[in-house]
Amino acid sequence: MVKSSNQGYPRLGEKREWKFLLEHLWSHKIDEAEFTAQTKALRLANLKKQQAAGVDLIPVADYSNYDHVLDIAAAFGAVPQRFGKFTEKLSLTDYYSVARGTKDAVAAEMTKWFNTNYHYIVPELDHVQFKLLDNRWLTYYNEAKAELGIDGKPVILGPVSFLKLSKVNDDYVRGELLAQLLDELLPLYVQVFHELGAAGAKWVQLDEPTLVTTDKAELDLYRHALDVLHEAAPEVNVLVQTYFASLDYYTDIVNLPAEGFGLDFVHDHGENLQSLQKYGFPETKVLAAGVVDGRNIWRSDLTAKQELISQLREQVASAQLWLQPSNSLLHVPITTANESKLDPVIKNGLAFADQKLAEIVTLTKAANGEVVTAELTASKTALDQLNHSEHRNNPAVTQAVKEILAAPTERHSAYPERVKAQQVLNLPLLPTTTIGSFPQSAEVRSHRKAWRKGDLSTADYQAFLDQEAKRWLKIQEDLDIDVLVHGEFERTDMVEYFGQKLKGFTTTQNGWVQSYGSRGVKPPVVFGDVQWTEPITVRDTVFAQQQTSKLVKGMLTSAVTIINWSFVRDDLAKNLVADQIGLALRHEVKALEDAGIKIIQVDEPALREGLPLKPRYRADYLANAVKAFKITTTGVKDETQIHTHMCYSDFEDILPAISALDADVISIESSRSHGESIKAFEQTKYDKQIGLGVYDIHSPRVPSVEEIEQNIDRALQVIDIHQFWINPDCGLKTRKEPETIAALRNMVQARNNVRAKLGVTE
Predict the structure, then answer these.
(1) d(CA 6, CA 323)
(2) Which ranges carry the Cobalamin-independent methionine synthase MetE N-terminal domain (predicted)?
(3) pLDDT of residue 342
């Protein structure tokens, strides 16, 4: 019989219980004992829900106290030496120090998990001697078995992927070093597998997501690892799990020494299915087929999924087939049950994690011959109502996009002419600014909550927001920052805020997903045609500009970032949705300029995040991204300075696209990656203005003046002083006020020191 499976379940909790437990521990509102007890209860509740749903193969050890890659590093003693030397399991304090930094130790680097908005902690393997400090997989397997009678499927990131996602001397592990480290690491995996086998574990899900991006030369490393594990623990069946793309070396990979392979049949561009039909599948192995989208929130067309499953069953026997989501459900919210305010037509078209598991169980029942007529009818009715609604059929939007694309989308003048026109801004050499947001204090959040509940009037709430903006404008003036921002106190999230203001978007009540650590985001939902109906940011930006003689930036989020950080309708190509959003934002840019705002920042932090994993699809993606950005930004006068911002990126391979955006100033993350972003500009000369972030905002530590000064000096070795801006890595919303002010004060002082050293007097 066909079985149902799941790869991983969301950590946050239906109402972010996990997030609040972490933050209460960090703020000493609860102790470690209470934290441990409450997280266990939450973990078991998640398992019990999957058990009740009827999932046959339930993942265990997919839980984390922060990040699953950090879990591997901590369990195997791969902790940077600056945090100490460990010979036994890390305490929670030590574990969180790696992720968040300490007064004396910079936090470990954080970067995107493939092309998602989840961030993982990058292991640093310099001078590391691997040692198994914590078999967490055995602990969680035994817990599920003892507490709930679940014979779970432990989930562990595979050794090759772990190493390829790690760094040594600031470079990702490759080549001979990869092979050497693999031999050092494998004995620890052997011990884990042996102990799991002894405890009765029948299957282990070995996540090797790098198999979808590997070159053929590295396949021997995966083969070697699987050979070693099979020999050491032959009683354990290994499911090698891949996701997010297709296998380029399909026949080589599915014939590796493992008992099963998990393939993504949703985000593979149809290529995994083509390979399966062309080459078949090993008769003795399990195919764990990802047939339901684990990254988006739309209800599945179950009839279409049944057709896909029929095609799979032509190649794979029923007893060897598992049905599951395309990837871990970490990337979607938990349940639509708590969404009481959504338009019923939209809500009925949604499927969060719990609903996706119900879909998997339904499809499994159908594959096994059970009658599921009611479920199929409900699915078809819901999708038909949504797709035929006026939300998705707005002819005015279609015509407006057609018209804007028929006209040139370029600035009036080339950059050399624009930069001359922008001298009217009278900016100093090495101007300082911030990326946009300032701390969202408990007071800000409490006022917002009171306003939403109706306990605070709109007028009083706006008065409070204005007061906060005025206060932070004064702080920025006192710090002598050159280009100011109004602080974004009215925005819960840089994408959700625009989703609340544009037609065609909606927001959820509890649609939270984990971004990094305890940071949850609530992506807006693009459910229909997108349209600008009224000014969004103009009132607050103009108010801020009226409070100061210094320049204030207008702050927008660009189309591709909105796409990548939203749940986007799946009945229309994403590039067409991006064009709609780009046009809506073009109206907002023009409204800001007409209101007298001279600098407008259109953030595109997720540009590279959405870059397809397969190089063959990247040119089209980047061309469409540039097109959408230019739709937004090219209607302004030469004197108006357009900024953009990017973070968490390896920039070398997209520098041509960054330049093609034709923004006057770009700011990018640099210090969190320990300055590696600078390498891109050592190899390629950038012809516009740029700010390389000079300190990491994701850690509570305050960088010293000397540290920031060194970062500036390093950047000025490859970037002309007339092009360079001084700014933090990213927005400051998640930081506390004292550390924010102290860090910015040090940033300005470091800039002043650099100017003094260079003899700059202007």
Answers:
(1) 8
(2) 4-316
(3) 95
Q: Is 716 exposed, middle or buried (0-12, 13-18, 19+ CB in 10 A)?
A: middle
Active site (annotated) includes residue 698: yes
Amino acid 292 reads V
Nearest Cα residue to 611 out of 652, 665, 670, 568: 652
Q: Which helix (H) or strand (E) holds 349?
A: none
pLDDT of residue 761: 72
Q: What confidence score (pLDDT) does residue 238 get?
A: 98
Distance CA 558, CA 578 (A): 9
- Which residues have a Cβ under 8 Å from the Cβ of 69 and sit 6 or more positions away? 113, 120, 121, 122, 123, 157, 162, 165
Kindly state the tokens that stand for 612: 């397809």
Measured in degrees and rounded to the nearest 5, phi and psi for residue 200 equal: 105, 5
604 is in an annotated binding site: no
Residue 669 marked ligand-binding? yes
Position 496 scores a pLDDT of 87
For 717-731, give one letter per residue: b (16+ CB within 10 A) or e: ebbeeebbbbbbbbb
**CA nearest to 597, candidates 556, 645, 658, 646:** 556
pLDDT at res. 686: 82
Q: Which two tokens stand for residue 523?
A: 């992506």
Both structure tokens of 228: 């070693």
The residue among 70, 8, 67, 69 whose CA lies nearest residue 210 is 69
Q: Spot the catalytic one: 331, 447, 587, 698.
A: 698
Tokens at residue 383, please?
A: 């999708």
Q: Using CA atoms in the order 690, 695, 698, 703, what is the torsion angle rounded to 10 degrees?
A: -170
Chain mean position to CA 605: 10
pLDDT, averaged per 10 consecutive residues of the chain (762 residues), comes to 98 96 97 97 97 98 97 96 94 96 90 92 94 98 98 98 95 94 97 97 98 96 97 95 98 98 98 98 97 98 97 97 98 96 96 98 97 94 94 92 90 96 96 94 93 94 96 97 95 87 94 94 94 96 97 96 94 95 97 98 89 94 96 97 81 83 89 58 79 83 93 89 92 92 96 92 68
Distances (CA, A) of 291 to 266, 361, 363, 564: 6, 12, 9, 21
Q: Flag whether 708 is marked binding.
A: no
Q: Is 111 helix (H, G, I), strand (E, B) or coil?
A: strand
Contact assessment for residue 121 and residue 73, using Cβ atoms and an 8 Å cutoff: yes
Q: Is residue 730 marked as binding?
A: yes
Most distant CA atoms of the chain, gap in Å: 81
Q: Does 488 appear as a known binding residue? A: yes
Predicted confidence at residue 357, as pLDDT, reads: 98
Distance (Å, whole) CA 383 – CA 471: 49
The answer to whether 603 and 576 have CB atoms below 8 angstroms apart is no
Can you name the residues that pair with 619 across neighbouring β-strands? none
What is the DSSP track for 387-421? HTSGGG--HHHHHHHHHHHHS--S-SS-HHHHHHH
Looking at residue 377, its pLDDT comes to: 95
